[in-house]
Amino acid sequence: MTDKKFALFDTAIGDCGIVWGEHGIVAVQLPMSGDEKTRLRIHQRYGDIEEAAPTADVQHAIDGMIELLDGKPVDLSDIELDMTDVPEFHRNVYEIARTIAPGATLTYGDIAKRLGGVELSRDVGQALGRNPCPIVVPCHRVLAAGGKPGGFSANGGVATKLKMLAIEGAKVNYTPSLFD
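Structure (tokenized):
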């Protein structure tokens, strides 16, 4: 039996999901192509957990994410995350990412340098690709070299990342190509 629960909530980019336990937010699920697919993804990752009304702390997190995705420069750094099952290197990457203000960006290399050297850039990208709490850990604010968008593993890929950055007013060096 698990103590985790989840809820769906509506945002400017679609219906997101949030998973929480007794020690904080465990995950945020970016929108899939419908509520049932979002629920399915949560169940695939976290098993047969109960859909429930959010606690006050979880509702605070939801409200902040909704406001942020409505274009308000909300600081989500006070939201308590449960990173118990997250490797230490990834936690360090996420801690740095959480310091990036709405509308601002860093590159994978910027974060890698803070963690010991630019040669860690690929590891930073891999950690961000496994980010369990997008929006709260704003991996969408981390760009590739030259201000290019880089990858984004959420549904919609780079288009979702660019939409989130546009909502926040961030500048991205991006011209779509035939290969996008």
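The chain has two domains: 5-69, 88-168. The mean pLDDT is 92.
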